[in-house]
Amino acid sequence: MRLIPHLLLAAGVGMSVSAHAADRVSFNADWRFMKGEPAGAAGAGAAPGLDDKAWRKLDLPHDFGIEGPFKQEYEGETGKLPWWGVAWYRKTFTAPAGDAVRQVYLDIDGAMSHATVWLNGEQVGGWPYGYSSFRVDLSKHLKPGAENVLAVRIDNPPDSSRWYPGGGIYRNVWLVKAAPLHVAHNGTFVTTPIVKAGEATVDVQVTLENSGGATAAQVSTAIYALDAAGRRTGPALAQSSPSALTKVGAGRQILLAQSLQLAQPKFWSPAKPQRYVAVTTVSGEGKVTDEVETPFGVRTVAFEAGRGLILNGEHVPIQGVCMHHDLGALGAALNVRALERQLEILRDMGVNAIRTTHNPPAPEMLELADRMGFLIVEEAFDAWRLGKKKNDYGRLYDEWHEKDLRAMVKRDRNHPSIIMWSIGNEIREQGEPEGWKMAAHLADIVRSEDRTRLTTAGFNHVVSGYNGFQTAVDVVGFNYKPWEYPTFHKSAPHIPVIGSETASTVSSRGEYFFPVSDDKSKGLANFQVSSYDLSAPRWASAPELEFKGLDDNPFVAGEFVWTGFDYLGEPTPYNADSTNALNFTDPAARARAEKELAELSKVKVPSRSSYFGIVDLAGFKKDRYYLYQARWRPELPMAHLLPHWNWPERVGQVTPVHLYTSGDEAELFLNGKSLGRKQRGARDYRLRWDDVVYQPGALKAVVYKQGKPWAEDTVQTAGKAARLALTADRSALQADGKDLSFVTVAITDKEGRPVPRSSNAVRFTVSGPGELVATDNGDATSLVSFQSPERAAFNGLALAIVRTRAGQAGAITVTASSDGLAGAKVTLNSKAQP
Ligand code: GAL
């Protein structure tokens, strides 16, 4: 068996497939699905003889919630989509006769939620927490040389999440076969306890499992360098001698450890994500029985209370975002290319770190982070025993917290991208007298599986509610309240601090409301939020307050902005949810929150996705993107003006103009006339011309840095909508049935200038070996199905997501048309897999 979960990614991301990969194969194809319970007694869906031919045929990963329909009466907090309830998945397969002498496992990377698994009518396992990966042993009830029926029942409880969780087997599923003597599930742990410039000590711990009769076992390990695509390059760089022969009893596990010296190691870092692979060979009585590949990186990670993150001896400020797991219009169903696109867009903004809120991500997310160079804080839970929703993790905590936490750390501890483990987010036990004991207990579980990384958590009451709970973890995470940084640091100068969740600024791409106000509660209309980036809910702020908090307190390790992308659910400030009211300890604040919520519940709110994203749900950049880019990539010459310049109803009226730039000085011109030159002060993060009187034409900013010309931006008044312009993010695709092209349509005037406020309906068609899987426009209030081939532009843009067909190479043509406008076409090339 080769456990190389992270090398078996979907094509389209340039991953290699191991020669022994047949021992761990994708088990995603050809499932049958039904929503609800089949007729008959409880558990009827598991009966091998059940006729499931009429059930829907599909391939995993699958999220039944995203199929909709959206309903106005569903709660916006979880996306107004039907993700809850019972569903069944069945797969019939023939097991080769040779399986009689092998161990056969089913690995499910994630099923939402409360999954139970049967093989041939016998219950063989399951796992309730939808974000955990788990293994089920099929060996005992497998029929080698015959037909077998696998059945999985999902029972996703309503009222169990504060965001859209998705429903179903929404991540990859694998069939794993091994000799009786093999490496246990997630049974390797590679660490680099001593790292010096010219040499690293690589320790490899291997847990062996023996499901056969007693035998003597031995392991040996070799280390190779990996290229950017995860392929081995060149010969072994280090090779251990075989371990001493050790007896493993029948049905027992043993732990073997090896230590290797790696000369001239290249360090892993976001800038240079160099990786290695430890290849561990297991033999029993002279015969090789298993071989496991464990990709890893050589890097040192430390936190200094006075400076923050020290990576490979150098200070690295954390420029991070929080991310929920959904992929917008694709829902929770894992797609590697969709994830990769999110990360590419974030990387271009200057993001170097991600907090996986508030749960373990798909394994492929961590493989991408390793390969692309992101630092990860992996978070386990949004709630412990007290819970935040009636049916959430609070129901599972007592029985499952230890299993879930161990499952997370054991699955992921070899990833160089992971720098810390978070045991929770805004946990309600923060306020309980005995809460700190739970925090200490959870942090201890993490440390018992991995002593090489620190623990953290996101706290919403660090200073105001300080009771010792906060320091049960190693690094204290502040959710908001940057003004409290100095108070905490003064009282605990030895404890590292990070902004685990910051800003929560809200905005809708392309919407601007007047008059512009710095009061953060303003800028709301039509269930949209103004994009002047000054609006935020009560507990939150504009980005600049957080920037100042960091700049004034350089001991803080950096920030994780809430959030990188918009996500399904939690459409604050139009979220009729009481969670945030519950979190208030101050009775006056709670009363205020409850009043707001009562007001909101009187109106019919259409909103179904968040406004927090720096990037919208469709992956289009909001203005804020450039505010962060200016800060995080100061070396990139860049200028971005807002708002757009199409205000026929505002001629002669004050229309403030703001500029985000990496320069330090700029002059603004309206139709060639200077409106003044402004300089950025030490704590100014944007330049503002707040008294500009609108006249149509061209608004231009000329930016300087240290007195020299640096960048320019122009926004122009556009004419009437006349045509469509199409751009594909990638046109060379793999014919693997997974690869995607994200095709953007922009509405332009006849000169090709974008028409910013246009909302023309666009119809997409796809011909050739591809299919239209979803459309979107980033409008948080749209209840149009994501599968609809027709999509109105939202402020000038719409998106079509096109997928290749497996095994069908050729040209795919995407056509966009709209009444009264000239249409457009783009051609994609789907190539056969090598
Ligand atoms: C935080 C919470 C997040 C999200 C955010 C919205 O308090 O941790 O999950 O709800 O607020 O601002």
TrEMBL record:
Residues 724-827 form the Glycoside hydrolase family domain. GO terms for biological process: carbohydrate metabolic process. It comes from the Bacteria. Residues 1-21 form the signal peptide. The lineage of its organism: Bacteria, Pseudomonadati, Pseudomonadota, Betaproteobacteria, Burkholderiales. This is DUF4982 domain-containing protein. Keywords: Glycosidase, Hydrolase, Signal. Belongs to the glycosyl hydrolase 2 family. InterPro entries: Beta-gal/glucu_dom_sf, Beta-mannosidase-like_N2, DUF4982, Galactose-bd-like_sf, GalB-like, GH, GH2_Domain-Containing, Glyco_hydro2_dom5. Gene3D superfamilies: Galactose-binding domain-like (2.60.120.260), Glycosidases (3.20.20.80), Immunoglobulins (2.60.40.10). Residues 188-299 form the Glycoside hydrolase family 2 immunoglobulin-like beta-sandwich domain. Residues 652-711 form the DUF4982 domain. The keyword Zinc does not apply. One of its GO terms (molecular function) is hydrolase activity, hydrolyzing O-glycosyl compounds. Residues 81-160 form the Beta-mannosidase-like galactose-binding domain.
